[in-house]
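To: structure desk
From: M.T.
Subject: fold request, one chain
Message: Could you run this one when you get a chance? Sequence is below, nothing fancy, just the single chain.
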Amino acid sequence: MSDTPVIGVLALQGDVREHLIALASADALARPVRRPEELAEVDGLVIPGGESTTMSKLAVLFGMMEPLRERVRAGMPVYGTCAGMILLAEKILDPRSGQETVGGIDMIVRRNAFGRQNESFEAAVEVDGIDGGPVEGVFIRAPWVESVGAGAEVIAEHGGHIVAVRQRNVLATSFHPELTGDHRMHALFVDMVRAVK
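Reply: Done. Structure tokens follow.
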């Protein structure tokens, strides 16, 4: 059996292509996932950045929300960036009407916490478990984590706010590592998938 994990990128909305490239560079077989039957064929999944309310509504519309929740509960590794982090939270502060989450990490997130689009920024972020110095993080209308439960492990902070969390097989960052040439976050996730494959 091949050691190359098959990792999907939820392709309902957001920066799908960049994640496919980053995963491929981290030695995964990456493919877009839009339907439950495609979700059933992957070993792990990335939920990209984008607009979390839109992604939530599209996941329901495409019949993906329940299959996603079931796979996460069953232990499938998932990595969410920015909007993906919001979707992996158990609770959102000030959710938009009709906004649902997949869940998976015992955390409360605040949407757009770092400000509007024109307040986007890049920052070097020290991430526990990533060797070779800080990761370059791109923060675009990024959330932050207000609080975590006992099961969640904080692996990075920026400006006094939690920006990366891991709980068992679920990983989330409020920044976009896929928009830089640094693919170490994706390599960490590929290793997580390989460990349970």
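Reply (cont.): The chain has six helices and twelve strands. Let me know if you need anything else for the meeting.
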